[in-house]
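Let's practice the habit of predicting before peeking. Look at the sequence and jot down your guess about where helices and strands might fall. Then scroll down.
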Amino acid sequence: MSGQAGSAAGAPGAEELLEVTLRVNGVSRTAGVPARRLLSDFLRHDLGLTGTHVGCEHGVCGACTVLLDGEPARACLVFAVSAQPHEVTTVEGLGSDPGALGPVQRAFLECHALQCGFCTPGFLTTVTAYLEDTPDPTEAEAREAISGNLCRCTGYQNIVSAVLRAAELRRGATPEPTP
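Done guessing? Here is the structure:
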């Protein structure tokens, strides 16, 4: 059968594995996985990209948010096999060089929008996509943009400030962030 990697270790009754190839952070990556493997598990366990966090496993918290063709998607609700025709960007794909942070990462750092960090990858990917479509949001629009991501450590004010600061940075504005 085309696209199939065979059964797991040839064991009787073992789940059949499919060869899944995804373009993740600009690189084609392949692994043999069960058809029901979630994108979040594929990224974390099969590819070792642990920046995508799994919180609620129901698509509610936003911790597993990645970008599919530039649009936010809950990786815990997408099968890896169904993501094959799409470009996947994880938080690792947003940049990992501390000397060259992107505007959203820099804004989160400057505005102290990081607490324990568990929710941060989902916020970073969500905000990155949001600012592509809305380069100059109001505070109310920024709040609405992040409303699908849950953070248990903060009252969101610093995250909202980070969204607004990231918008400034993307536009080339350089005023210092407000605490």
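How did you do? The chain has two domains: 4-94, 98-171.
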